[in-house]
Amino acid sequence: MEFWRNLTFGDPWRLVLLLLVPAIVGLYVWASHHRGRRGLRFTTTALLQLVGGSRPQWRRHLAVAFSLLSLTAAVVGWARPTTITDVPRERATVVLVMDVSLSMEAVDVRPSRLQAAVAAATQFVDSVPDRYNVSLVTLSGSPAIVVPPTLDHGAVVRALSGLKPQESTAIGDSIVAALRALEQAPRDPQRPDQLAPGAIVLLSDGENTVGSTAQQGARRAADAKVPVYTIAYGTENGYVDVDGKRELVPPDTATLRQVAELTGARAFTADTAGQLDRVYKDIRSEVGVEKKSTDVSSTFAGYAIVAAMLAALAAISLGARWP
């Protein structure tokens, strides 16, 4: 559906030739009707079959239909169509923002939210293409760039294994820190004034408690044209014990969804380790591609050739005598 919705044409005036299609259909209907009236001059059906033979009408209609489809596809291809398609990125930077607030000690996800998140993030980093830079930012009351963008994915994995819980949750400030990390990534020599292409993957299990709001951070990312994929992590019944008091720590799904939407990315939820693994796989497939305008003239040329071959086969069947 997206293919057709984004379809545009370099020479749209050439589509005028598509008006030939209804004209040919009208001519065909008129000719078929005229041929039928001429056939009524024969007095018996048997005599008509001896003169013209008995051929199923659907074969003739099929040959015409495929011919018209071939003409339509050829005209559309001649108009130089383009559409938005997913193209694999040659280079990119992925900034992984990991929530290390105290709520990540909750054990509603076994063995704990933090340990399960580190295990899933490790697999995600290992699956990122070697040509992509990866960075790690911690999300707490004081967000920090733990590992700047690097092709040494092993350094990121080692840093993940050493994460420790910290106080508070500053989602907005962590997005700003992730943008600073992106600024440290190698620039495209042809576009040195632009950020390196990349994305932020933010996992959090709580609501923003300090610093700038999550929406403010999201707007900063949107202005920089950097998508922020969010993962609302944990269950509604998760809890931690603070100073002998049990406190519920459900994820702020609504806020994280808003962050993703403001930046043109997707929002995910995960309340088990298995779901988190699947989410990271989905994100990896999206981060690894970018939207580009692609010429699809050859696609329609292929449709035209296939339809022409089918039309030829249908025409041959009209003259063949089948047992």
TrEMBL record:
Pfam families, A to Z = BatA, VWA_2
Domain spans labelled VWFA:
93-283
Query: Gene3D superfamilies per the record?
Result: von Willebrand factor, type A domain
The answer to whether the entry has keyword Transmembrane is yes
Coiled-coil spans are: none
Classify the source by domain of life: Bacteria
Alphabetized, the UniProt keywords read: Cell membrane, Membrane, Transmembrane, Transmembrane helix
Statement: the UniProt record of this protein carries the keyword Transmembrane helix: yes
TM annotation in the entry: 12-31, 300-320
- The residue range of the signal peptide is none
Q: What's the name of the protein?
A: Ca-activated chloride channel family protein
Species this chain originates from: Raineyella antarctica
Instruction: Give the classification, highest ranks.
Output: Bacteria, Bacillati, Actinomycetota, Actinomycetes, Propionibacteriales
